[in-house]
Design goal:
This protein has 13 helices and eight strands. The protein is α/β, with parallel strands linked by helices. The chain has a single domain, classed as Rossmann fold (3-Layer(aba) Sandwich). The chain has an eight-stranded mixed β-sheet, sandwiched between helices. Helix 8 runs parallel beside helix 9. The radius of gyration is 19 Å and the shape is globular. The two termini are 15 Å apart. The mean pLDDT is 81.
Length: 291
């Protein structure tokens, strides 16, 4: 039996060495910057383009991606880890082509979560992930050591912030923390909820200059998303903005970002091939490698 399981694991690893599933983590230096709404709409727009998308809502204590997509599930990834339900049961299918998995645990439960996440569970979850073109991870605001593996496993990280001094400082602090732990994924900035375009240039210049001078790094891409009152209406109606109001200026900005993501992937498939998709995803949940 042990030999058979080892053979299955080996075959799975070989399959994933050829896998082109992209892991995109979306985070922010502080709360209140619109990160979850942005994550949902990026996921929904990718799905509109015919991509298979899995949205993993890891925002401990504030998971609401499924609600924003018009669904509310009583099952969570935590229930699966505890052996109460199957993996299939904790997947929330939405009307917008996005599959959602919610962690359903608080930060205090994270260590228990990692200790209980076995290699066999990792392989089962990988089998699910490989069916998708993109795995979007909505990470809680700020930096936490508990979330380190999510960042290290990413192909791309989108850091969402707003044009306010505290938010900008927190965004820089997060970039610094990720730089210290050795994150190699491309880190892009998304300046959200812009009311005046004149705000964009000054924030971009300050962040780029500070990151370059103090961290010796370059911000690869600096995106912006305009503020629109219709966003609140789409949230209230639990319909992604990219479906609710396609001609919104906010949607046009989101479409531009998704265009960039798709074009970038055509040019440079799976940037982290030196670390297999299998190992990155397994380490995301079980960095200690417990069986």
């Amino acid at each position: 039996m042990s030999i058979k399981l080892n053979d299955q694991a080996k075959n799975l690893r070989e399959d994933f060495s050829k896998n082109e599933t992209q892991i995109i983590s979306i985070s922010g230096g502080k709360g209140g910057v619109g990160k979850s709404v942005f994550s949902v709409n990026i996921s929904a727009e990718l799905a509109k383009r015919g991509k298979k998308v899995l949205l993993f809502d890891s925002d401990a204590g504030f998971a609401n991606a499924s609600i924003l997509l018009g669904k509310a599930s009583s099952n969570s990834f935590s229930d699966y880890i505890n052996g109460n339900i199957s993996l299939e049961d904790c997947i929330q299918k939405t009307d917008y082509g996005v599959n959602v998995v919610t962690t359903g645990f608080d930060f205090k439960d994270w260590k228990i979560f990692q200790n209980n996440f076995t290699d066999s569970m990792a392989e089962e979850f990988l089998s699910l992930a490989r069916k998708h073109d993109y795995v979007i991870i909505d990470i809680g605001a700020g930096y936490s050591e508990k979330l380190k593996t999510f960042y290290l496993s990413s192909d791309k990280i989108l850091l969402v912030t707003i044009p306010e001094p505290t938010a900008i400082v927190n965004a820089y602090t997060l970039i610094k923390a990720l730089s210290i732990i050795g994150v190699n994924a491309e880190m892009d900035i998304v300046l959200n909820m812009i009311k005046d375009k004149s705000e964009i240039k000054s924030v971009e210049e300050v962040l780029k200059k500070t990151v370059k001078n103090f961290l010796s790094k370059d911000i690869q891409n600096f995106f912006y998303v305009m503020y629109d009152d219709v966003v609140h209406e789409s949230v209230r109606r639990q319909i992604p903005l990219v479906h609710y109001r396609e001609n919104s200026k906010t949607v046009k900005n989101i479409v531009y970002i998704v265009d960039h993501i798709l074009d970038e992937n055509k040019e440079n498939k799976n940037k982290m091939k030196n670390i297999s998709f299998f190992e990155r995803f397994k380490n995301m949940f079980n960095p200690g490698g417990k069986d």
